Amino acid sequence: MANDNRNGNGSGEQGQLSRSERTVGSWELKKGLAQMLKGGVIMDVVTPEQAAIAEEAGAVSVMALERVPADIRKQGGVARMSDPAMITGIIGCTTIPVMAKARIGHFVEAKILEALGVDYIDESEVLTPADEEHHIDKHDFTVPFVCGARNLGEALRRINEGAAMIRSKGEAGTGDVVEAVRHARAILGDIRKLKSMRRDEMYTYAKEIQAPYVLVEETADLGRLPVVLFAAGGIATPADAALMMHLGVDGVFVGSGIFKSGDPKARGIAIVQATTHYNDYKILAEVSRNLGDPMVGINVGSLSAQEKLAGRGW
Amino acid sequence: MIAGVLALQGDFAEHIAVLDRIGVASVEVRLPRDLERVDALIMPGGESTTFGKLAVRWGMIEPICAFIQAGKPVWGTCAGLIFLARDVGRDQPTLGMMDIKVRRNAFGRQADSFTMGLHIVGVPGGPYPGVFIRAPLIESVGSDVEVLCTLPDGTIVAARQGNMLATSFHPELTRDARVHEFFLSTEFTRVQTR
């Protein structure tokens, strides 16, 4: 495999970019697709028809899955990778990138998704974990991965395993943005603290947050994560999306929030507009009008620890 | 000189970072009024269908076309190239200003995205690091369009037409600022007086 996917921004990679033959699956390319999604909205869809509505609303990508998190929560049972026929159907009907979810640690599901031609794999806590100790070795793929995180240590552990994009975990399927806010603030706040640390403090800090020192140092130097950071988990309104952008994320995932609402297309369009114009409150006021009913939602405070998905993954 | 970077969606911050490195002031362009402050415009990589919807919604199509007609330099990278094109082979809003026929996602899906060294007319100093991510290609060009770069198989991946520059690849994802320097050089901008 032509993978030269080591992390970091070593100068060797820029040399490789100039080679006269094609190189695929490189770290630059994996990170690069996520960079193209910045400032955009990635929408959960369960049918080709929903994918068409998402593209029409201005989504930058769709996440193909069998049940949105709100239904997984309601119906229970083991949540797995979607039926390949359904993923192929969605790939066939949209021109924007298609993502799909594999269970944490289930590298065979991930290899199947790669074989189907999906553009990004979400190793996701929304599905039932297949391995309670190990995440997928994401370096062993040409297709890039996105993973959820609640804090900087978790984000850097995933990047160390090869994740080329990070999202907050939030609390999927609730329509309650509080956990996405908590996780984005934790990740971005930890980076702000890191930027003010001396090197000797960084060694200890890397140990405390259980992250590889080299990635801690790279994050400190860049002043941001080495990969794109999106918000996810509980975003349901244009104002939620704009709030997350203000906190410093690069874009948003909207799961159940669109297709569990009264008027998915109108809400999808509004959330796309709000993500671009998050700094313009007149525009936010305008796009937030007359969107019909939002998803009903579940107050995260009413969930028991057992019912929360964000604790999955380590 | 202030360079505007279209900031509806996509990797506009990466373009701004390159402009910072080469000492060029820049502003993010989201609304028609933002265009009044800039002397040149870069349209970044991203999702071209999203650009189209946001541009239509906020009345950006006509002001950008007028900006181009006024002879000001405009450069589209990847999605920005699609957004410039006259013909993208399907019904989606674009500026329609550059006489090129474009095929979206022409190289395949993300697993087919690639990097490759390129030789670009006007960009001296050895191979340029070409980063192609679900990239479009230029299928054909009109008589006023100059081809600036092809792959070894003849595929057109960069072209110019007067004050418009289009690249299938992403110079903003590299640490090589030569294409940005070329776009902002007098060699490129002098055609605007033609």
Give a quick set of tags describing it.
heterodimer; A: 314 residues; alpha/beta; 8-stranded parallel beta barrel; B: 194 residues; Rossmann fold; 3-stranded mixed β-sheet; 26% helix; globular
Task: Write structural notes for this entry.
Chain A is built from 14 helices and nine strands. Chain A has 314 residues and is α/β, with parallel strands linked by helices. In chain A, strands 2-3-4-5-6-7-8-9 form an eight-stranded parallel β-barrel, surrounded by eight helices. Chain A is globular. Chain B has seven helices and twelve strands. The chains are: A alpha/beta (314), B alpha/beta (194). Chains A and B meet through helix 1, strand 1, helix 2 and helix 13 of A and helix 1, helix 3, strand 7 and strand 8 of B. Strand 1 of chain A pairs antiparallel with strand 7 (114-120) of chain B, so a sheet runs across the interface.
Would you summarize the structure shown here?
The complex is a heterodimer of chains A (314) and B (194). Chain A is α/β, with parallel strands linked by helices and 314 residues long. Chain A has helices at residues 11-17, 27-36, 48-57, 69-75, 84-93, 107-116, 152-160, 178-195, 199-208, 213-222, 238-247, 256-259, 264-276, 281-287, and strands at 23-24, 41-45, 61-64, 98-103, 120-124, 145-149, 165-168, 228-231, 251-254.
What portion of the residues of chain B fall into strands of 2 or more residues?
Answer: 25-35%
**Proportion of helical residues of chain B:** 25-40%
Helix content of chain A: 40-55%
The level 1 CATH classification of chain B is Alpha Beta
Tell me about the largest β-sheet of chain A: 8 strands, parallel, barrel
Ends apart, CA distance between termini of chain B: 20 Å
Q: Note the overall shape of chain B.
A: globular
Give the averaged pLDDT of chain B, no decimals. 95
Name of the CATH architecture of chain B:
3-Layer(aba) Sandwich
The stretches of 5 or more residues of chain B where confidence is low (pLDDT under 50) are: none
* Number of helical elements of chain B: 7
What would you call the structural class of chain B? Answer: alpha/beta
Average pLDDT confidence of chain A is 92
- Oligomeric form: heterodimer
Number of strands of chain B: 12
Silhouette of chain A: globular
As for the number of domains of chain B, it is 1
Total helical elements of chain A: 14
Strand residue percentage of chain A: 5-15%
Helix-strand string of chain A:
HEHEHEHHEHEEHEHHHEHEHHH
Q: What is the ordering of alpha helices and beta strands of chain B?
A: EHEHEHHEHEEEEEEEEHH
